[in-house]
Amino acid sequence: MEIRDLIVIGGGPAGYTAALYAARANLEPLVIEGFQWGGQLMITSDVENYPGYPEGILGPQMMVEFRRQAERFGTEFITDDVTKVDFSERPFRVWVGDDEYQARTVVVATGASARQLGLESEVALQGRGVTYCATCDGAFYRDREVVVAGGGDSAMEEALFLTRFASKVTIVHRRNEFRASQIMTDRARANEKVEFLTPYIVVDVLGVDEGKLSGVRLQNVDTGEVTDYPTDGLFVAIGHDPNTKLFLDQLEHDAAGYLVTLPRSTETNIPGVFAVGDVQDHTYRQAVTAAGSGCMGALDAERFLAAEEGHLHDALAAPRVES
Ligand code: NAP
Fold first, then answer.
1. How many whole angstroms separate alpha carbon 171 and alpha carbon 159?
2. What pTM was estimated for this model as a whole?
3. Could you confirm whether 137 is annotated as catalytic?
4. What CATH code is assigned to 3-113+240-317?
5. What is the CATH code for 116-236?
6. What's the confidence (pLDDT) of residue 25?
7. Is the pLDDT of residue 313 over 70?
8. pLDDT by residue (tens digit) across 173-222?
9. What is the pLDDT at residue 19?
10. Can you tell me the distance from the alpha carbon of 62 to that of 43, in angstroms, rounded to the nearest whole number?
11. N or C end: fewer C-beta atoms under 10 angstroms in the chain?
12. Which helix (H) or strand (E) holds 289?
């Protein structure tokens, strides 16, 4: 079986940038980019904070261009999901169903996904009133009333963003205290379009039969009382989860499942396996920081291979001891 220099797992800004750098360094990377390649930018509309696009660019278009740039230098792609990995010995082994691939180094760039409430009705109405991205869908709610579920900085940020369009934004949170920073909470409180409903959880999303969201069923956490709350949109902003299920038994991770890398490096606990982008960063979570991290991962992999090759040459050059 062919043993490649590098397999990149994941096709978002981090994975494609790692591939671009690795391809230009002649590592002939294979990117197993996932069936739904592109990552979170595929559900984003205008990206206006990526340097080099002064007029902004659509998220999916940007990912097409990232991918094309990596392809230009010889990256190979598999548009499917990795189903299993074995990093216990080298070469590392990566499976897509029954197909196995082997490599001397691996860059993990599987990103993170928006958390869902876990309701059947929520899934049924995704894209029909239930959304996870105010930046993407906020403009569809001009002069409408919306609910934001969550109590962290994301919920506050999304709520404030939505006040640009919506006539009223209700933040529904399961506790009376907010996880969000004081400054973000104060900003939301100061906005006259924002209302707070606590301590409530969303127990059902209404409108499944009509195929369009008409409200949310809320339950008071303290009293158990249930009320139906009419709304035009539900923005779920309850955080993100790293896509690390495949790696948890092999790579060091924190309590939330984010992969742990050495300081100022993308190295994981297994030499030759690197982690880049949102899969190891829950703080910045930006396309540009993910891309930067992808670049670091490729450089780390390249140096790792070069150092190893150096040792190999040293070993070959060393005088043989005859017994
Ligand atoms: P987060 O801090 O983990 O907050 C998630 C919120 O959702 C919490 O309030 C949590 O409630 C609630 N929640 C979680 N699961 C829930 C469920 N199943 N049902 C109902 N509520 C649920 O996530 P985040 O807000 O996305 O922020 C992530 C990180 O990014 C944080 O470090 C944050 O500071 C940072 N961030 C910063 C900014 C900014 O500064 N501009 C903007 C966005 C994000 P509990 O509090 O009860 O657990």
1. 7
2. 0.79
3. yes
4. 3.50.50.60
5. 3.50.50.60
6. 97
7. no
8. 999 999 999 999 999 999 999 999 999 999 999 999 999 999 999 999 99
9. 98
10. 12
11. C
12. helix 287-317
Determine if ligand 1 sits within 6 Å of the CB of residue 153.
yes
β-partners of residue 78 are 32
Give the tokens for residue 229. 């709350």
Sign of CA dihedral 88, 90, 94, 97: negative
Indicate which residue's Cα is closest to atom 17 of ligand 1.
117
pLDDT tens sequence across 272-301: 999 999 999 988 888 999 999 999 999 999
Say how far apart CA 56 and CA 59 lie, in whole Å: 9
For residue 113, give the H/E element and its range.
Answer: strand 112-114
Whether 201 lines ligand 1, by a CB cut-off of 6 Å, is yes
Q: Sign of the CA dihedral 225, 228, 230, 236?
A: positive
Cα 231 to ligand 1 centre (Å): 22
Residue carrying structure tokens 């506790």:
175
115, 121, 124, 127: CA torsion to nearest 10: -60
Cα–Cα separations (whole angstroms), residue 179 to 150, 183, 304: 9, 11, 40
Give the Å distances, CA to CA, from 83 to 5, 96, 99, 199, 247. 20, 5, 10, 39, 11
Residue 318 alpha carbon to ligand 1 centre in Å = 57
Ligand 1 pocket, 199 CB below 6 A? no
Residue range(s) in the chain whose domain bears CATH number 3.50.50.60:
3-113+240-317, 116-236
Residue written as tokens 């969201």?
Answer: 213
pLDDT at 52: 96
Active site residue 295: no
d(CA 195, CA 164): 15
Residue 45 has pLDDT above 70, yes or no: no
Query: Which tokens in the block code for residue 75?
Result: 């990256």
